[in-house]
Amino acid sequence: METEGRIVILDHIKNICKRRCIIPVVAIVILVALLFIVPFFSLLSPKKVDGIFNVKSSDSFIEISTKQMKYTGYDVKNGLGTKFSYYYALKDGKCAFALIPHDLVKAEGKDLPDDAVKEELKDLTFKAKVIKPNSSYKKMIELFANDLNWSEDELNSISTGWIVSSANYHPYRYLFSLILIIALIGFAIFRLVTAIKSYKDPYRFEVCSYLSKEESRELIDEAQDELDSENYLQINATYITENYYIDLDTSGAFIIPLKDVIWVFRLGRRGVDIGKHSLTYTINFITRDGEVVKVPRKSSDEAMAIIKSIKATEYEIITGHSDEKMRMAAAIIRGREEENAETQPEEKTEE
C-alpha cells in the first residue's frame, strides 16, 4: 500500500490481515449453521417413541419401541451387505412400515435357514431414522401389493408418508461429520484470531519463515528504511533493494535478506486462470542454512525479471535451475554446516 506516495509495509500487512478475516468469518457462519441444519443433536440423543404410530414425519433420529409388527416377506441389503427386513403394523385403517436389521429379527431354531426371520415382532426396541419413501420401499410396495391382490395406489392410500428405517441410521458417519465440522470451526477461529492479532500488531506477521519474531521485527524496519530511500528496482508488487527482496503481493508479504540467499530459481505449475489454462511460477529462495522460501503466483516474465534483478545485485547468488547449480548450492550448504561444526565449542568430558 502507498500512503502519499510512500510504500508502507505495515499498512500492507494490515490490509492482508483484513482480507484474511473474511474467509474464516464466512466459514464459521456456514459451519455453525450446519450444526443446526443437520440433526446432530437428534442423533446424539434420539427421540424415544413408544409405538410406531406415535412417530411424526418431522422426526429425525428416533429410538422406537414397537408393540406388534408383522413381516412383509421382503428384505433389502445396504452397500455393506447388511440385511434389513420390512415389517408393517396396522391401526385404525392405517399401515406403517419399518426397515429393521436382520440381526434383531432373526428367527431362532436349529432347523431354520440362516436368513429366516420372525413372522411377528412384539415389544422390540431399535434405533432408526424417519425417512420419506425411497426406491427400495417403492419396489417393496409394488411386490407387497401384488401379493395382497391390491393395487399400489390402494396400498399407498392407507400407508403413512414416512418409513422408520434402520438402514438409514448411520451414527458413525454423522459423528465423523460432526467432529470434522467442529475441527473446521476451531481451525477457522484460530485463523481469524491470528489475523486479528497480526492486524493489531503487524510485526507479528510472518514475513520471513526462517527468522524469529524478534528478527522479523528488525527485518521489517530495515526493509522499510531501504524502501524509504527509494533506491530499489520494482517489478509489479516486488521491490529489490540493496539488501532485501521485498514482495508486497495482494495475498502476502515476503521480506528476504539477500545476504542469506545462495540460490534462486523459478518452477512452473499448471493452473486455471478464468477459462483458460495458464502456467504460473513459484520463485524458490535457498539460503546458506538450507532453508527454502517459496514465493508463489508469478507470471513467466515477472519471475524472469525478478531473478535477473537479483542476479544484478552485489551478492553472489546462483540463479536458474539445473543439476549442476543444485550441486553447487549443496556444496555451499555443506561448507556452511562444516564451518559451523568447527566453531562449536568442544564438550568437556570428566574423567
How is this structure best described in words?
By secondary structure, the protein is α+β, with helices and mostly antiparallel strands. The protein has helices at residues 9-37, 40-44, 102-105, 135-147, 152-158, 171-200, 213-228, 300-311, 323-343; strands at 2-3, 6-7, 47-50, 61-77, 83-91, 94-101, 120-131, 159-165, 233-235, 238-240, 244-247, 254-257, 261-273, 276-287, 292-298, 318-319. A five-stranded mixed beta barrel has the order 4-5-6-8-7. A four-stranded antiparallel beta sheet has the order 9-10-11-12, with helices on both faces. β10 and β11 form a beta hairpin.
Keywords:
4-stranded antiparallel sheet; 9 helices; elongated; 31% strand; 5-stranded mixed beta barrel; alpha+beta; 351 residues; 16 strands
What helical percentage do the residues reach? 25-40%
- Largest sheet, order of strands side by side? 4-5-6-8-7
Structural class: alpha+beta
User: How would you describe the shape?
Assistant: elongated
SSE topology string? EEHHEEEEHEHHEHHEEEEEEEHEH
Quick recap of the structure?
By secondary structure, the chain is of the alpha+beta class. It has nine helices and 16 strands. The strands form four sheets. It has a five-stranded mixed beta barrel. It has a four-stranded antiparallel β-sheet with strand order 9-10-11-12, with helices on both faces.
